């Protein structure tokens, strides 16, 4: 929850999700001394081409290879 020295900001604690928010994501970056916000569309059907660590973690535990 955001806080301020002399102001009650509890009304900003929870924000109701809107349907349009499910189709985009906000990317925040610190660039050239300022915060830059970009909006990108969410890929609802990603193509997973690489093996995720969770699927191949066994070799790390038993030190194979």
In a few lines, what is going on in this structure?
By secondary structure, the protein is mainly β.
Describe the protein's architecture and organization.
With 65 residues, the protein is mainly beta. It has a domain at 19-43. β1 (24-31) and β2 (34-41) form a beta hairpin. It is built from one helix and two strands. 0% of the residues are buried. It has a two-stranded antiparallel sheet. It is extended, with a radius of gyration of 20 Å.
What can be said about the biggest beta sheet? 2 strands, antiparallel
Q: Classify the beta-strand content into a percent band.
A: 15-25%
Q: What's the helix count?
A: 1
Q: How many strand segments?
A: 2
Alpha-carbon Rg, integer: 20 Å
Which blocks of ≥5 consecutive residues have pLDDT under 50? Answer: none
Distance between the termini: 47 Å
- The helix/strand order is EEH
Q: On the 0-100 scale, what is the average pLDDT? A: 80
Global shape: extended
Spatial sequence of strands, sheet with the most strands = 1-2
What portion of residues is helical?
A: under 10%
Which structural class is indicated by helix and strand composition?
mainly beta
Give the helices and strands, then pairings.
Elements: E1 24-31, E2 34-41, H1 58-62
Antiparallel strand pairs: 1-2
């Amino acid at each position: 929850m955001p806080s301020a020295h002399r102001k009650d900001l509890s009304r900003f604690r929870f924000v109701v999700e809107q349907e349009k928010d499910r189709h985009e994501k906000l990317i925040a970056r610190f660039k050239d001394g300022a915060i830059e916000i970009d909006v990108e569309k969410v890929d609802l059907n990603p193509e997973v081409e690489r093996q995720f660590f969770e699927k191949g973690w066994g070799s790390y535990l038993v030190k194979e290879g």
